[in-house]
Amino acid sequence: MPPAVKEKSKRMAQPHAKPKTHKTKFQADLAPADDHMVRTLKAELQMSSNSDFLIDALTLFRWAVSERKCGHRIVSESASGERKVLLFPRLERVAPEVTLPHVDIRWTDKELGSLAELVSGQPAEPTEALIRAMRR
Amino acid sequence: MAVTIRRLEEFDEVAAFDCGDEPLNNYLIRHAWTNQQKVSIGVTYVAVDESAPHTVLGYFTLATSGIPRDRFPKKFVRGLPPYDLPLILLARLAVDRRFSGRGLGHALISEALTITLCVADEVGCRCIVTDAYSDKVGWYARYGFVPIEGTVASSPQKMFLDVRTIRRASSSESSPAERG
Q: What ipTM did this prediction achieve?
């Protein structure tokens, strides 16, 4: 009987226990070259755990995104003062400069009528080429 | 070739660019940087190879535009949203002919449409339009651009692509033919 009491008291204690943190599994299929790169970087950084590697990489990436979001450029500078600017297409998409300037286009009345019909109609199904273009 | 597409920079090598069309060459060589940095009427994106990261292989220029609602003919206004129509203009797209046939045009339009979708998500726009040379209308049509009727015969053909179609393409995992 004593064990049952213990179990009950355990159950009663649960609401006051700290909530469990859920961890998400992250799995990636890497090409041999990328796998080699990960192993080399882990060795250089003296890391043994994939999780630690991912967390550090994520921290660095998050920092880079936040810097570009502020419009800051990411630059490396050599001992002699030579500078290189990081250009990373995905990062450029979060940069505020993605805002485009405005121009006026000359339209004929017939063009505006045709455009109005296109805009107010149902969107067309994407073509194969468009799907490929958007699947990079 | 490991091609990157990024914004035009001041010291990019554009002088030798030759797509076979003088106005398109001239725009990149003489006006693109000024229009981007000084007068801000168009942003030019260039394709470069990592082996020569400042030699421009191809480019496109984007700008935003809009049409006031009262410009549309009255009989068409009823079907439109009750606001001015925001849109993106794909003002130019060209590939140096020494690098044609390597998929650069596809990579450039792919980036242009990705940026269009990004702008549509961030600030809103309804469609992308372009002025296509008559021999390029078929190429744009492959990506879903539709000719806008009423273009003056001597002018390039205005073409239209709905942002909703681009968004569908972006969220589409695979085509029925590929799944088949």
A: 0.86
Q: Looking at the complex, does the CB of residue A87 fall below 8 Å from at least one CB of chain B?
A: yes
The whole-angstrom separation of Cα B114 and Cα B88 is: 12
CA distance B34 to chain A (A): 13
On chain A, the residues whose CB falls within 8 A of the CB of B154 are none
Helix ranges (H only) for chain B are 22-26, 32-33, 74-77, 104-122, 137-142, 163-171, 176-179
Q: Where are the domains of chain A?
A: 32-134
**B110: closest CA of chain A, how far (Å):** 5
Residue of chain A minimizing CA distance to B84: A116
Contact B165 A133 (CB under 8 A): no
- Buried/exposed code over B93-127 (b: 16+ C-beta within 10 A; e: otherwise): bbbbeebeeeebbbbbbbbbbbbbbebbeeeebbb
Please give the DSSP secondary-structure letter assigned to residue B35: I
Tokens of residue A128, six digits = 């194969």
Q: Which of B60, B28, B29, B36 is nearest to B46 (CA)?
A: B60
Instruction: Decide if B128 contacts B116 (C-beta within 8 A).
Output: yes
Q: Nearest chain B Cα to A104, which residue?
A: B65
Give the pLDDT confidence of B88-144 residue by residue, as tens digits. 999 999 999 999 989 999 999 999 999 999 889 888 899 999 999 999 999 999 999
- Give the pLDDT score at B29: 92
Residue B13 DSSP code: B
Determine the residue type at B153.
A
Instruction: Give the Cα separation of B104 and B92 in Å (integer).
Output: 14
b/e code A106-122 from CB counts within 10 Å (16+ = b): ebeeebbbbbbebbeee
> Homologous superfamily of B3-128 in CATH?
Gcn5-related N-acetyltransferase (GNAT) (3.40.630.30)
